[in-house]
Amino acid sequence: MSKIKIRIVILGHIPHSLNIQKVQNWKSDLFEILSPIDTVNIVGDSDGFEWEFLDENMERQLPVRNGADVLIGVTNVPIQNNYFARRYSDNRVCMTYSTMTDILKYDNIPLENLLLRVIYSVSFVYRRYGNRIPLISESTNFAHDETRGCIFDMNGIKTDVIYSLNKPQLCDSCINTLTNIPQYKVGKNVIAKVQSELKGIKKGLYYRITDLLKKHPIPAIIFSSIFAITLGVIGSTIGRLLWELWIKHWL
Predict the structure, then answer these.
(1) What gap in Å lies between CA 75 and CA 239, rounded to an integer?
(2) For the domain that residue 46 is a member of, what is the CATH number?
């Protein structure tokens, strides 16, 4: 099975802390991200009652796929129904960081993790529906309301997104669906490789250690106490040896 060709386009201004180069260099057995990642201006203003860009407006903002299988527009403006991703015609998707940036930063999650999760979920949707992205108006059932830390969590409560942005997964139900579609099955070897790749979507090392200490405070206190005592003994021993072997002879 050939890799899905993904074209990413930046629509307008995006948060400066988004490491788009990390996304550009991401390696996967499921998809490849085409170069370069272009930036296009947003033309006109929002047309929704809550200052959001409605579907027809946003669809006009998206450029053509230009040889890619799927185009993903990345923006920072709100889109219809307060979604963070919506599907449009001609295998095009728009993802927004509007309201999402604050959620991710509060939990110390790199902004690119959200984009990577969207790329993986969109890629599987593309395969599941016979190499096409269904329109937002079409009835679909690939997302589930229950939050399982899966890339197909619906995240009706937006803050739940954090559970699928630090070592996310494909849940057993989604794996069963993808590998048993009569005409468009996804191979189990591809699923296994993707599961391994998803583990690379994670927080930075410092924040993973911090989370571990918060999760196990008592062992952390015991360990830090032992470490401090050990470090003090080692420092005292080294100081005494330096005094006996070198310092006192020069005084």
Answers:
(1) 58
(2) 3.40.390
